[in-house]
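Entry 14. Structure prediction run on the chain below.
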Amino acid sequence: MTAQPGWKWSECIKPLVGGESCQTHHVGTVIGGTIHVQHEDGSEQDISAGDAYVIEPGHDAWVTGSEPFVAFEFDSSAAASFAKGT
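Output returned:
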């Protein structure tokens, strides 16, 4: 998964898939960059290079900083959904 600086789920993906938040389950590890995740329950987290992560459905996320966010996603449902554009 690669997301460029300025990418935000609610601006780039939400218009295509609808809903109020990302409903995909993410499991992965970060190779470079940082992404900020805001969960529907109000909790927030920053995920950066070297971090492993699990992000439950019900969140928004955006790249912070000037470096692309690059991660390996291990839950294949995320790749399948975004590859189809739905």
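The longest strand covers residues 26-32.
Filed with the rest of this week's runs.
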